[in-house]
Amino acid sequence: MGTAIALFLISVIIYILCRRKCRRGRSHYLSRSQRSTAIASDGVYNQAQVQTDEVVPSAPPVAKKVAVEDKTAQTEEVSTSEEAVQTSAPEPAPKPEPVVAAKETVVVEEKVISVTQAPPSQYTETDVLVKSEPIEEEDKKEEEEPQEEEEKQEDVITTEQEAKIMTKTMTLQRTKFRDDITFESGWRKRVKLSDLFSANLITEETIIELETETITVEEVQEQLREYLIGLHPIAGVYNDRSEEKMSLYSAYKAKIISRGTALSLLEAQAATGNIIDPITGDMMCVDDALAQGLLDRSFAAVLTRAERGVTGYVVKGTTETMSLFQAMQAGFIVEKHGIRLLEAQIATGGIIDPVANHRLPVDIAFDRGLFDQRINKILQDPGDDTKGFLDPNTGENLTYLELIERCVEDEDTKLLLLPLVKEQETQLYKEKRLSSKILAERLHSRTSSSSSTRTAD
């Protein structure tokens, strides 16, 4: 008998526990309408309970507390009115769980009070949604909104730039095609627009302006002068002793400078695209200079090889064109000699690509295999053995850039001339007390007086 009673009690306990568990699980998944009904019913129950308390003072008041779970931002559990009716005696109040933020607790408690005190007809579904919405998610949304706006602004800027180019192309009539547009280099070679674009020397917007003829080829040619022509090399000599301008070959013939000095400076001219007549300012290839008497055949033979630094080196039996640096790597040019020619190209605007027929910045020349870090390091930190240009005034070995800094500019031709100072002023020149400015003034006064004399005659 005792065993039967024990089994019965155990069965009753298991049934009660299972029923409570089912009720709790169901309260988690109440729909919005059920939640509204439950809270409203709970309000009615609270009002009925208050009336009962007024009639029977001895009954203990029932305090209802709402627990807020802020961990996973789930909706709060609400006890139904059905559970309250079935319970005859008041159950002990549930122990409230700890609230994460005091600010959030105040907001939720105020919302609960307003719901319980309001009549069921005034309670709306919107209130439930506001009450159960996690505050942390609102803060995240506020933080994410500025990031999304910045990304949208960047997209808008990119789109506007693309649209601007598209609109410009559509509104203006295209009269030229980019494949037909060419420029001329300083050494009389045709330069394709596509080659300049691939070297990042011209923008797509400028190309569209050329195609629609809103800008002329001549204007772009001048903008790209640094890469199509560059700076001029040392053109000749200013003999301060006789107050006259002379070509390098003429100065050699007059025994003012040595053959080696004249030849190295003429090689620098040939490797940058032109042999220069400093008197007239004319520029020409080696063959034309020979025909005009600016060279002799022995000079022309040497300078023709240096000129290939611009036109390219072609291996016999092939059609491949090699640059100056590539010819150095292949052993066709002695490295010391090749470095001197590369130095002249860099000092006057950039390394020359013999295939594209224009100059390149050093970083792009690296990418195209026309230069490397080892040669660049030699040129950046040259030693006495790599300084291949002689100053005839002092006998010093200098880099080409150092020698250019000692030159004077002819105001008539805008060309650089190497000064040959008077013997009594050699020491002043060496100590840099005889400046290029003084020598330039002498040159200018001499050329001005010569031109006035010719006018009078």
Ends apart, CA distance between termini: 153 Å
Provide the spatial order of strands within the biggest beta sheet. 4-3-14-13
Could you tell me the mean pLDDT?
76
Structural class: alpha+beta
Total number of helices: 21
Catalogue the unreliable spans: 27-33, 36-41, 44-136, 453-457
Q: How much β-strand is present in the residues?
A: 5-15%
Helix content: 40-55%
Largest sheet: 4 strands, mixed
**Overall strand count:** 14
Describe what this molecule looks like in 3D.
With 457 residues, the chain is α+β, with helices and mostly antiparallel strands. Helices cover 54% and strands 9% of the residues. It has helices at 2-28, 32-55, 81-86, 102-117, 125-132, 135-171, 193-198, 204-211, 217-223, 225-228, 248-253, 259-271, 286-291, 297-311, 324-330, 335-347, 362-367, 373-380, 400-405, 426-430, 436-456, and strands spanning 182-184, 190-192, 234-239, 244-247, 275-276, 283-284, 313-314, 321-322, 351-353, 358-360, 389-390, 397-398, 408-409, 416-420. The strands form six sheets. A four-stranded mixed β-sheet has the order 4-3-14-13, sandwiched between helices. The termini are far apart. The model is unreliable at 27-33, 36-41, 44-136 and 453-457 (pLDDT under 50).
Write the SSE topology.
Layout: H1 2-28, H2 32-55, H3 81-86, H4 102-117, H5 125-132, H6 135-171, E1 182-184, E2 190-192, H7 193-198, H8 204-211, H9 217-223, H10 225-228, E3 234-239, E4 244-247, H11 248-253, H12 259-271, E5 275-276, E6 283-284, H13 286-291, H14 297-311, E7 313-314, E8 321-322, H15 324-330, H16 335-347, E9 351-353, E10 358-360, H17 362-367, H18 373-380, E11 389-390, E12 397-398, H19 400-405, E13 408-409, E14 416-420, H20 426-430, H21 436-456
Parallel strand pairs: 3-14
Antiparallel strand pairs: 1-2, 3-4, 5-6, 7-8, 9-10, 11-12, 13-14
